[in-house]
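A.,

Following up on our hallway conversation. Structure tokens first:
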């Protein structure tokens, strides 16, 4: 049995390892290797979790995009902390992230929005995300109206649509092992400017 898949003596920071694991997932996962569960907390203290797509990452953190008036957008604005989980079944690996949240810059949001398909751009204008939808035709009519409004021109980014960056204070790597003798390696830091400390955890 290999007991050194995640050897903290050889790994001094988590981002390079995250890159390696994401690349492996991109080569093995059949759908959305960049999918991640995003957990936020509401004003009532209740947690809320949903799947979103990672659209950028570097040593500053992990970026996704959404309608800022959505439930998660409002929760993030009110309580700028979040947790993420990546789970890659084909690799039998998981990464957990916990940290502080900040909005991505307008330039970052503009760049990503311009890379989306035209229909996805129009959908961002048509959707009143998380609001009650009386009937499907209402949404379809809003999409048609957006098509008409921006016919023969570029679709601008809606002012209510942007990006969020989760800046990690904790990143944990989990690797499945035989007989449930799993391998866990966690990196923690007290502040965003502090050095990482690592430790193995019992599975």
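Then the amino acids I'd put at each of the 203 positions:
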């Amino acid at each position: 049995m290999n007991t050194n898949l995640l050897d903290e003596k050889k790994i001094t920071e988590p981002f390079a390892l995250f890159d390696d694991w994401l690349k492996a997932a991109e080569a093995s996962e059949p759908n959305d290797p960049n999918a991640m569960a995003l957990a936020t907390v509401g004003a009532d203290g209740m947690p809320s979790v949903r799947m979103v797509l990672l659209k950028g990452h570097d040593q500053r953190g992990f970026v996704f995009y959404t309608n800022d008036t959505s439930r998660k957008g409002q929760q993030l604005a009110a309580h700028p902390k979040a947790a993420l989980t990546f789970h890659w079944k084909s690799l039998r690996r998981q990464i957990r992230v916990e940290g502080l949240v900040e909005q991505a810059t307008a330039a970052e949001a503009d760049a990503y929005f311009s890379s989306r398909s035209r229909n996805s751009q129009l959908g961002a204008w048509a959707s009143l995300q998380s609001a009650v939808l009386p009937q499907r035709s209402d949404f379809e009519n809003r999409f048609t109206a957006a098509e008409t409004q921006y016919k023969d021109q570029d679709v601008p980014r809606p002012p209510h649509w942007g990006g969020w960056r989760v800046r990690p204070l904790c990143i944990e790597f989990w690797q499945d092992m035989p007989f449930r003798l799993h391998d866990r390696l966690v990196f923690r830091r007290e502040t965003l400017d502090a050095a990482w400390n690592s430790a193995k955890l019992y599975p």
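Residues 63 and 165 are 4 Å apart (CA to CA). Curious whether your intuition agrees with the design.

B.
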